[in-house]
Structures are given as structure tokens and as C-alpha cells.
């Protein structure tokens, strides 16, 4: 199979499954290198976000790729099977275009996935696992996404995860201006959330990160304070709103920690948003009194409330994508003809070179140039037309009619037969 996609996303798998197959940072390159060594595909790219983990492969076998996917994450294939989709060539191309355009996102039209796809391509390039086919697929995906956003309103007034977080917080607190907000992590999603919450003029704002430098860089933008993750247990009771999104493979905040936090706060409520996959906050925290914990799936339900205003653009976007899928598949099919085209051109070039050499020898002997040119043109014509003419003579019955029609089409002989 030339091309296929294998993966799971927010529509097929709950966050408890998605976090078990999430791959972040350096893990992307390591996973891709291991995949190509295992040989379920000659080319591969891996996209892993809070909402999806997808493997794009060229020249491989889907069943072998699924076996590798399961083994890499140390999961039984039977555990993953109910959540995984495998998309063959046409569907895989269409899916890539839809993902890049924000049509397959939890938040319709959100632009963040495009940057995540570009990061995935860079990781694959660094790992040496992306070739001509996947490179063309992703570059075409990015161009399609640009066309969709330029010619439709799919990205207008997008309700983001960050905006949804503020909306949920306002259901708990009458005003964010009286609350202190803590952001854990310093990545793009935290930056977006900080921008939305800072617009509400909170009483205090802080950013906690493993490295103080990144925390300081982000906190300075919003007039906040920079903290180290290791200091969180002592500082958590100060904050009314906590938003977390890191690349940690293990929870940063556990139930025991939050029990101590609630006690220290004398049971004043805490609003928490966990945007990380794998999760930064133990799910059991959600069952505690005075704690309001929301995951990415919970926010997805909120943002879907604002989808109707943008739904009218979907049909237009899908039409653009369908057209581009056809063009890409035509290019894909034409790749199969490349060896034949090269061979045909080599044959023509050999005939040309041979006749030119004969003509030069005749000119050197002093023959009249016009006669030499005439002989060259006749010789070249005979050489190029000998094979199709002989094939037509040798064919019989229906084969002759079919070959005749084909030659008339190839040489554009309209009305000649």
C-alpha cells in the first residue's frame, strides 16, 4: 500500500486511552527511528497531541504498523483495536487535509493543529523517516489548510480551549478579578490560556515550570511571578485557579497533595483545568469536595456549544478538500508511470543521439547539408515510429482495434481512423 494512516483521536478514544499512547518531545524522533528499523513502513511521520496520536506511513503494511504501535506502547493490540482507525490511500489523504484545516479538531477550525503537524514533519525529517511521498502529502496539506482558511470562515471567532477554560471558571467564581491564577508549564497552550485569563485582570498570576528561565519569560508578559515546579506543594494553597499543561509522563499533582491544599485553604473552592495528555492531575482529584477539575474532554463539550455559528463554512471547506484530494491522488498514480516515462525518454534520446552522430559524419565527408538534414529527420522518424507501427501490424482482431485507438489517442490523430 502506497499510503495509509493509523491512529486514534478524541472521537474514537477517551483521554484515559489517548494518554497511554501519547508521544512528546524527543520521544517522537526515537519512536520514528524505531518504527523504520522495525520495517512496517519505509516512510513515517507521527503526530501526537492532546486530542490525537496518528501514524502516517508510506510503502508499508497497516497490520504490521498496528503491531508495532501496540508493542511500542506496551499495550495488547486487542486493547487498542476498538479505538484505532486505519485509513487507506484516498481516505488517508483526505484525513490529512481535514486535520490540517481544523475540520477534524475538537474545536472546529482551530489553528493550533497546523503548527503541531509542522512540528511532526520537522521531527520526522530529523529522524530521517520522511521521504518524497510523505513530504509531498504534508506540504499539500499545509497548502490546502491555507486555501480553506483564506476562502472560508471556518476559523472565524473560534472558541478555543483557552476561552472555554475562562468560561468554565466564571461558572465557579463570580469574577476572576478576585482570584489568583497559576499556570503549570510554559508551552503554547499555557501561553494561550494565560492570555485569556490575563484579560480578566486576576488578582495574581504565576507560571510554574521545570526551568525558571522559561517561566520568567512567560510570566513577564503578564506581570506575573515565576515559580519552579518543585516548589508547588507549598505554594498551591495560594491559588484559586490552576491550569496545567506539561509534557510530563507522570501526574504532577496527586489526590494526596490536593487533600492537603483544600485543608490549608479551609475548603475554599479550587478550579482546575488539566490540558495535558498524559494527564498532569490525577483523575481521582475530580471526586473531591471543593475541587472542580476539568480535562480536555470536558472542555471539548463546552466548546462544542459554540460550533453552530461556524458549521455553515464546513461544506465549502469540504468541497475544497475533495478537489485537492483528487489532484493529489492523480499525482500519486502518476508516480507509478515514472519508470516507464524515463525508459521511453531514454529510448528517444538514444535514437536522437544515433541519428545526430550519423549526420555529423556525413557532414564531415562534405555531403550537401540539406540532404543530411533530410536523412536525419527520416531516420529519426523511422526509429521512433518503428515499434508502434510493427505492433499495429502484428496485432489482430480486437487487439488491433484497441491498439489502434490507443495510438490515435497517444499521437492525437483525430478523425484519422
What features would you describe in this structure?
By secondary structure, this protein is an alpha/beta fold. The chain has 3 domains: 3-157, Glutamyl-tRNA reductase, N-terminal domain (Beta Polymerase, domain 2), CATH 3.30.460; 161-308, NAD(P)-binding Rossmann-like Domain (Rossmann fold, 3-Layer(aba) Sandwich), CATH 3.40.50; 336-409, no CATH class. 54% of the residues lie in helices and 13% in strands. It contains 18 helices and 10 strands. It has helices spanning 15-18, 26-38, 62-72, 77-80, 89-100, 112-127, 132-151, 161-172, 188-198, 212-221, 232-235, 255-264, 296-303, 308-311, 314-334, 338-364, 369-394, 398-410; strands at residues 3-9, 41-48, 52-60, 85-87, 180-184, 204-209, 225-228, 241-244, 270-274, 291-295. Strands 7-6-5-8-9-10 form a 6-stranded parallel beta sheet. Strands 2-3-1-4 form a 4-stranded antiparallel beta sheet. A hairpin with a 3-residue loop joins strand 2 (41-48) and strand 3. Helix 2 crosses helix 6 (112-127) and helix 6 packs antiparallel against helix 7. The protein is elongated.
Which structural traits does this protein have?
417 residues, alpha/beta, Beta Polymerase, domain 2, Rossmann fold, six-stranded parallel beta sheet, 18 helices, 10 strands, 13% strand, elongated
Amino acid at each position: 500500500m502506497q499510503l495509509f494512516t493509523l491512529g486514534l483521536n478524541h472521537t474514537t478514544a477517551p483521554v484515559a486511552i489517548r494518554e497511554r499512547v501519547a508521544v512528546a518531545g524527543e520521544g517522537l524522533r526515537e519512536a520514528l527511528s524505531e518504527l523504520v528499523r522495525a520495517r512496517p513502513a519505509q516512510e513515517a511521520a507521527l503526530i501526537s497531541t492532546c486530542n490525537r496520536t496518528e501514524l502516517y506511513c508510506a510503502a508499508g503494511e497497516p497490520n504490521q504498523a498496528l503491531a508495532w504501535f501496540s508493542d511500542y506502547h506496551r499495550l495488547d493490540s486487542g486493547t487498542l483495536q476498538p479505538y484505532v482507525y486505519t485509513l487507506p490511500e484516498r481516505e488517508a489523504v483526505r484525513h490529512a487535509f481535514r486535520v490540517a484545516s481544523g475540520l477534524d479538531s475538537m474545536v472546529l477550525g482551530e489553528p493550533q493543529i497546523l503548527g503541531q503537524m509542522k512540528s511532526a514533519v520537522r521531527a520526522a525529517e530529523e529522524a530521517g523517516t520522511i521521504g518524497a511521498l510523505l513530504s509531498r502529502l504534508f506540504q499539500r496539506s499545509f497548502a490546502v489548510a491555507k486555501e480553506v482558511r483564506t476562502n472560508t470562515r471556518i476559523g472565524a471567532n473560534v472558541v478555543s480551549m483557552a476561552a472555554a477554560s475562562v468560561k468554565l471558571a466564571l461558572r465557579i467564581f463570580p469574577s476572576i478579578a478576585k482570584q489568583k491564577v497559576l499556570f503549570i508549564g510554559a508551552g503554547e497552550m499555557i501561553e494561550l490560556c494565560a492570555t485569556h485569563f490575563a484579560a480578566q485582570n486576576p488578582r495574581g498570576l504565576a507560571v510554574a515550570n521545570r526551568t525558571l528561565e522559561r517561566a520568567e519569560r512567560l510570566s513577564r508578559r503578564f506581570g506575573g511571578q515565576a515559580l519552579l515546579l518543585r516548589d508547588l506543594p507549598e505554594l498551591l494553597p495560594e491559588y484559586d485557579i490552576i491550569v496545567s499543561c506539561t509534557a510530563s509522563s507522570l501526574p504532577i499533582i496527586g489526590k494526596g497533595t490536593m487533600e492537603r491544599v483544600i485543608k490549608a485553604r479551609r475548603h475554599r473552592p479550587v478550579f482546575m483545568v488539566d490540558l495535558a495528555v498524559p494527564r498532569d492531575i490525577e483523575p481521582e482529584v475530580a471526586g473531591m469536595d471543593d475541587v472542580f477539575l476539568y480535562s480536555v474532554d470536558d472542555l471539548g463539550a463546552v466548546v462544542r456549544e459554540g460550533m453552530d455559528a461556524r458549521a455553515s463554512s464546513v461544506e465549502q471547506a469540504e468541497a475544497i478538500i475533495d478537489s485537492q484530494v483528487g489532484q493529489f491522488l492523480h499525482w500519486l498514480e502518476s508516480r507509478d508511470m515514472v519508470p516507464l516515462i524515463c525508459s521511453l525518454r531514454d529510448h528517444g534520446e538514444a535514437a536522437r543521439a544515433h541519428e545526430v552522430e550519423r549526420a555529423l559524419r556525413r557532414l564531415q565527408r562534405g555531403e550537401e547539408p540539406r540532404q543530411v538534414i533530410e536523412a536525419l529527420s527520416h531516420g529519426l522518424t523511422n526509429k521512433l515510429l518503428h515499434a508502434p507501427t510493427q505492433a499495429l501490424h502484428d496485432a489482430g482482431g480486437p487487439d488491433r482495434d484497441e491498439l489502434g485507438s490507443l495510438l490515435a489517442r497517444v499521437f492525437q490523430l483525430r478523425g484519422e481512423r
